[in-house]
Amino acid sequence: MSDLSVELAGIRLRNPLILASGIWGESGQSLVGAWDAGAAGVITKSIGSRPRPGYPNPTVEELGSWGMLNAMGLPNPGIREYSREIAFAREHGALVIGSIFGGTAEEFARLAREMAATGVRALELNLSCPHAEGFGTEIGSDPRDVDEVVRAVVREVKIPVIAKITPNAADPAALAAAAENAGARAISAINTVRALSIDPTLMRPVLAHGIGGLSGPAIKSVGLAAVWQIRQRVRVPIVGVGGISSGADVLEYVLAGACAVEIGTAVAHEGVRVFGRLAQELDQLLSKKGVSSLRELVGGAHRGFEIPAADFP
Amino acid sequence: MSDLSVELAGIRLRNPLILASGIWGESGQSLVGAWDAGAAGVITKSIGSRPRPGYPNPTVEELGSWGMLNAMGLPNPGIREYSREIAFAREHGALVIGSIFGGTAEEFARLAREMAATGVRALELNLSCPHAEGFGTEIGSDPRDVDEVVRAVVREVKIPVIAKITPNAADPAALAAAAENAGARAISAINTVRALSIDPTLMRPVLAHGIGGLSGPAIKSVGLAAVWQIRQRVRVPIVGVGGISSGADVLEYVLAGACAVEIGTAVAHEGVRVFGRLAQELDQLLSKKGVSSLRELVGGAHRGFEIPAADFP
Amino acid sequence: MHRIVEIEDRVLETPSTVTWRFPYSVPCAPGQFVMVWIPGDDEIPMSLSYTDEPSKGVTIKAMGSASRHAQSISTGSSIGIRGPYGNRFDLAPRRILAVGGGSGTAVLAPAAELAVRSGARVTCALGATTETELLFATRLAASGARVEVATDDGSAGTRGFVTVVADRLLREQPFDAVWTCGPEVMMRKVAESARSHGTVGYGSVERHMKCAIGMCDACALGPYHVCVDGPVFRTEILLSLEEFGRTKRDPSGRRVPL
Amino acid sequence: MHRIVEIEDRVLETPSTVTWRFPYSVPCAPGQFVMVWIPGDDEIPMSLSYTDEPSKGVTIKAMGSASRHAQSISTGSSIGIRGPYGNRFDLAPRRILAVGGGSGTAVLAPAAELAVRSGARVTCALGATTETELLFATRLAASGARVEVATDDGSAGTRGFVTVVADRLLREQPFDAVWTCGPEVMMRKVAESARSHGTVGYGSVERHMKCAIGMCDACALGPYHVCVDGPVFRTEILLSLEEFGRTKRDPSGRRVPL
Ligand SMILES: Cc1cc2nc3c(=O)[nH]c(=O)nc-3n(C[C@H](O)[C@H](O)[C@H](O)COP(=O)(O)OP(=O)(O)OC[C@H]3O[C@@H](n4cnc5c(N)ncnc54)[C@H](O)[C@@H]3O)c2cc1C
Ligand SMILES: Cc1cc2nc3c(=O)[nH]c(=O)nc-3n(C[C@H](O)[C@H](O)[C@H](O)COP(=O)(O)OP(=O)(O)OC[C@H]3O[C@@H](n4cnc5c(N)ncnc54)[C@H](O)[C@@H]3O)c2cc1C
Ligand SMILES: Cc1cc2nc3c(=O)[nH]c(=O)nc-3n(C[C@H](O)[C@H](O)[C@H](O)COP(=O)(O)O)c2cc1C
Ligand SMILES: Cc1cc2nc3c(=O)[nH]c(=O)nc-3n(C[C@H](O)[C@H](O)[C@H](O)COP(=O)(O)O)c2cc1C
Ligand code: FES
Ligand code: FES
For the whole prediction, is pTM greater than 0.90? Predict the structure, then answer.
């Protein structure tokens, strides 16, 4: 057995596998389910100030085994109500990370305080959410907004703050650098990739909301590129997210620079058994390599690539 | 037989299918091959001022039938030498669109003049190329740079200028709007999505360059989202690119707002026979719908979605 | 991935309930459900009320906006279907009591038909508010099942709750299994009857559904997800769940009384 | 998708040529090639010199940086393989003349072996600069093929060009097909001999390769792409191509003399 434990912003995780936000995150009992199945940490769905029903269905479209779209519309019961779910999960021993979203830095700060009060071990900021001013871009796609939000949150709470970076940006690494500079203790990347699917027979978007986000194996290489570039710019630990569905995928993220990973879409169909499978696959890969601890491999693929590539296709 | 012909910035195309830049675009004879196989237009590989060998191999990594990565590194023999290939293609009747790339607005302008002198019918600007100043972001990811480049090019040439938009940006529609405003007669979207793949056994990136671009079915929904959002912001015609491999895919792009499409990765393995297949599939779909002309369907999925969505997942 | 199908037949089963038949070649079993996309409106979970070839069917009771809209959608209209999802009724038992309330009968009908066809003895206890709202009583009788009916107003069969009929049947004769679908208060009663008579019970439950593939958590019910672990559960399990028959979650995830 | 394999055996065939054997379970046929990724260096196209189970093989002549580096890579090292790509030799003809120059013999060897095994009469004419550079002469003789040799310095077999030997063989006896691989000037001569004797010819050609899947156009040769339409072409086609034996494209796409 290799040592799969890792450390993330001062939090020891028994393995690098964390339940991603928005998956199995509505009920405290589901969070416990993921924890009991082997997740080393569970992230709540992104919680806002007030209850939101989310968008009408269809909210999800499977494109194939390699990807799916969703536009849930950030359904959540509001932080007040949701704190009961967190309490349940904590009582049952789960290591809970609270995800929050807001339209302004002030809203993030207020939510951060309320979320921290529930006793979560860390905060993840979902910056892939619409600007209060609208217009379709995300609050997390501009380094100045990221700086402002992270700064406002860090002022309010003592627990580590993880900034979740959007791939829908010119330079995700610059966003991560802004977050680090503003006090984020870790970076997670990526959220879903902006996407749309149209039904050619009905001649309309499939998702009721129109625009949605792509997740699953199709975005693994996109998430890896983000983690890779972020690793070249920041020193705080990185949590890799996007398209992970095998132990080899986890290893790819670790080699790109992630010290832990989040699992989202792979929970569909398979359920939280995926955590046990991934841990086992990872352990086998490490044994085959003769590596005793996963931590040795973090960022291991950067050797020979130290100079940021100025050029790309 | 339905009428598949379309008009793009004053150029009549016998069907909406165009060979994408960088595919079968090194030799004039290959361009003719695509034309003879049914492409209504052929775009050259992106040509620069001087010969460039491109990156070492591996330059391509197939991820599965749903996607591939490439980092070719813009190999090209330079505009002087390449003009012979264009001459050959034109002599054999092909409708050629010249793609150019540069590191500054001045370089784009100079290349545009030289490319226009070869007799191409339109120019496509590959804005997904590195800034001369480096740092890994693309010249096309900032609306101000797009404005500057397009303005400089439009001043130099009489033929229509098509601005090719990168998906690696916070708001592709804002880039398209900047290009339109600067005088672009059409928008094409998207280029490849920034991506990376690591071999977990060798513990290094697969592509020699490290970072590459994702193409193929995996990015179809990403390209559709870009076209959709661009359609809500600009009036000039849009050429859809990204992951098209069936007639239904073409229809999705048309319904999202494209009047023509480019085919790239689908040429792999299948070759330029893909153009005949897509035209046939498209014709069958239109017949089934009882639609006599493809042009009627451009943007047809926007009904009921006129208000830009301020909110997304 | 939705498949777009045309409604090839529509039957008004009751004044508030319509059945749609549509071609759908994916194999489906009784108990499973599909997500039905009504373009421009909503996408809602529906148990399959017909699971055989050549065409599948759903039977929709007007409950709210989309299901009301569904009542007026005509033959030839295009809808999107994805699925089937979820588990199925165990058809092995030889003596089955199927207890349906309201539109809950929709999912029991194909299960009962298939069981009868494979030689089981099936008794159906069907409840409705009034005679005209009775669902599939004729269809089930024609299939060879024995059918008993209860209506709130006594316009057909026993006046009162179908749970009373079910309890009587369980007392009168031996059953290997009880199947039930309907309002949760009803199912809870049936589950308790089954328990007291020592008969194994299976209930098909409903929770708000969004993804239907076990990820969004909208349909969480205790430690289960109705879309993948259900919709059919052993009634012993249902009885052990504090939420069963009492609360559900609204689309925001908030717990609300049933 | 590369598969990472370990070199399980390495044989120095000549002072400048090494053969690697490696496990690779994907079916491969003589004539096809793979892309060989030498981590940290380059990925280069290599015809398969062994196509049978259990292990495939490539035979690499030191030409430039990666192929020189390859000479010193030891058994147990990991390399990446993708493919096989391209077409194959037609093994149907019964009387075959295989004309190889330098490392070109690598691709002819498995084809000749398989043809002999299936009952064909195969004659191999092998050319090299000098005796120690002769490739697979012993292997081919052992397989049951008749082997004739030519060296530039006369250290083995006929002194001079293998094309002269090939032309003599074509004059002396009837062949159903000529296969050839080697420098293009050599292949052009062989193609002309085959034409003048009315024998159908097949030549395996090389062009710069990047994608190997028919999209990047690096390997364009007239209207063909060597990676998917080749590498084996009818020599009549090759002779019709203005570029054959004269020019190729460098990695930038510029035409350069061969
Ligand atoms: C597995 C399953 C099988 C079902 N089978 C049938 C069936 O065979 N026949 C039948 O008539 N009904 C069935 N239902 C119930 C049916 O899905 C709801 O009646 C329908 O969704 C109501 O939609 P609406 O837009 O009319 O309701 P709304 O006006 O949106 O709301 C009315 C009520 O309908 C329910 N509802 C709305 N949306 C959903 C949703 N996405 N998921 C679950 N419930 C929802 C809620 O309880 C809500 O309070 C089933 C539900 C589930 C979960
Ligand atoms: C289909 C095919 C099959 C081949 N089979 C064999 C074989 O069985 N044995 C063998 O020894 N050689 C074979 N070659 C040639 C072999 O690929 C080159 O010798 C090798 O790529 C040289 O690499 P390098 O880094 O040493 O050369 P470099 O130092 O990079 O350049 C030296 C020369 O090698 C050639 N070359 C370099 N890179 C490539 C490339 N990516 N594609 C094609 N040519 C290249 C060029 O002509 C170049 O001028 C084959 C080539 C092709 C196209
Ligand atoms: C159905 C669904 C809901 C999601 N909800 C949230 C959310 O509430 N907050 C958030 O930060 N990310 C959310 N995400 C994004 C995931 O956390 C994750 O970043 C993304 O899906 C990529 O990982 P994957 O490919 O493993 O799914 C959601 C993703 C999906 C598929
Ligand atoms: C091998 C390869 C080379 C490419 N070269 C170029 C190029 O030179 N210029 C350019 O603008 N786009 C280039 N592209 C991007 C394509 O033109 C296209 O925008 C992208 O691949 C998405 O379309 P697809 O999914 O149909 O391939 C290249 C793509 C590939 C796969
Ligand atoms: S409906 Fe999403 S988990 Fe069941
Ligand atoms: S190597 Fe790319 S087309 Fe042949």
Answer: yes
